[in-house]
Amino acid sequence: GESVGLHLPTLSVQEGDNSIINCAYSNSASDYFIWYKQESGKGPQFIIDIRSNMDKRQGQRVTVLLNKTVKHLSLQIAATQPGDSAVYFCAENTDSSYKLIFGSGTRLLVRP
Amino acid sequence: SAVISQKPSRDICQRGTSLTIQCQVDSQVTMMFWYRQQPGQSLTLIATANQGSEATYESGFVIDKFPISRPNLTFSTLTVSNMSPEDSSIYLCSARAGQGAEGYTFGSGTRLTVV
Fold first, then answer.
1. Measuring CA to CA, which residue among B29, B41, B24, B26 is closest to residue B93?
2. In the Cβ-directed half-sphere of A89, how many Cα atoms lie within 13 Å?
3. Which residues, listed in sequence order, are joined to residue B77 by a DSSP beta bridge?
4. Which of A36, A48, A86, B100 is most open to solvent, judged by the fewest CB atoms within 10 Å of its CB?
5. Cα–Cα distance between A1 and A12 in angstroms, integer?
6. Res B16: pLDDT
7. How many CA atoms lie within 13 A of B43 on its CB side?
8. Of the candidates B22, B24, B63, B27, the residue with the CA atom closest to the CA atom of residue B46
């Protein structure tokens, strides 16, 4: 399939290590933030979200941290697996508009 | 969650021609969206398409270049008109089929190459 991450920054990690992917968002009025995973030839797939009144949320093997002071979002993936190799995007949204605005992405490469 | 079928999955077109991309959702949805993803970049919202009203375009995108139809609650089309090589990109359809962040679903995209 086509690669969507040819020119995106790449994070290379060893299988089993933890990964941290960062994102800077633009709108301080956004109500919630979402992390998506995009594999080659596919559309973005929902991973986890966090509302603006929270600073941390955990899912299965993933944790999202939100720092509203510096408008920064991070995704932590524990025990990274080869299947985690993909491009990861953050997106932000306001309750009133329903539009998803995507931030820059990061290509995650997991070394076996 | 809703499933989106988008076609064609890819096409190679001559400059000056137009291509219409179709997006079919397996359930009725109020809001649909069209995105462009240029090579190696993130997704940029082109427009929001709600049934029964004109599409709302984002800054930098105009109806003459990207006309959108939304004839019912399960279907939308995006046309890329008078194409140039700069239009080479992946075009993605999205729908808000449920509440909250998990309610958004995406098609697999259309890979357009203009020669």
1. B24
2. 23
3. B22, B69
4. B100
5. 20
6. 98
7. 31
8. B63
User: Tell me: the pLDDT tens digits for B60-85?
Assistant: 999 999 999 999 999 999 999 999 99
Does residue B36 surpass a pLDDT of 80? yes
Of A41, A42, A89, which is closest to B42 when you measure between CB atoms?
A: A89
pLDDT tens sequence across A43-94? 999 999 999 999 999 999 999 999 999 999 999 999 999 999 999 999 998 8
CA-based nearest residue to B108, from A91, A2, A8: A2
Q: B95 to each of A49, A88, B8, how far by Cα in Å?
A: 17, 20, 18
Whether the CB of A103 is below 8 Å from some CB of chain B: the reply is yes
CA distances from A12 to A21, A25, A45, A109, B60 (A): 11, 23, 21, 5, 35
What's the CA gap between B89 and B95, in Å, rounded?
Answer: 20
- Residues on chain B touching A105 (C-beta within 8 angstroms): 41-42
Tokens in use for A33? 């933030």
- Find out whether A102 and A89 touch, Cβ atoms under 8 Å: yes
Residue A3: pLDDT band (50, 70, 90) is: very low
